[in-house]
Amino acid sequence: MTGQSNTKEALMADIERSWDALHSLFSRLTEGQMTTIRDAQGWSVKDHIIHLAAWERSVVFFLQGKSRHEGLGVDESVYLKGGFDEINDVIYRQRNKLPLAKVMAQFDEVHQQLLTRLETLTDADLQEPYRRNLSDETGEGEGPTIYDLIDGNSAGHYEEHQGWIEQLLGDQGG
Fold first, then answer.
1. Contacts of 54 (CB under 8 A, 6+ apart)
2. Is residue 63 part of a domain?
C-alpha cells in the first residue's frame, strides 16, 4: 500500500501521483525505446503497459460485479489454478503484437473506468474484504480489502513497474 491511510481520498491521491509519475516517464521515451528494448523476460516497456492495463481492467470488472478472469482475458481455470506467471504469460501472448498507440489508448481508457468506479465507493466500501464479494474464488480467509486490491493493481502496481522500466532503460543506456 502506498498511502498513509486507507481512505478513498488517500487512495485517489496515490493513484493520481503514481499515474502522473509513470506517464512522465513515458513522455520522455521514444516509440522505439518503448517497443524494442527488452528485459531478461523479453518484455518491452509496451508489454509492461499491457500488463498494467490488464490487471487494472480486472479490478474494474470486479467493481462491476464481473469475474476478474474476464477482465484479464484469461480462462477461469488459468486464473483460479495458474500462478501469476502463467496468467501474465497468457496476457503477454495475447496482446504483445498490439501497436503502441492502441496499448496506450486502452491503458488510458481502463484507467478512466477505474476512476469512475472508485468515485462511487465510500471509505467503508474500501474496507470490505475482497472475497466477500467473490464467492466463487478459492483461498484462505477473506483476502485483502477492496482498498488493497485497488491499490495493488493501480498505484502500487504502477510504482513497481516504473522501477522495473527504469531499470530496463538504465541497463540499455536509456
1. 71, 72, 73, 91, 95
2. yes
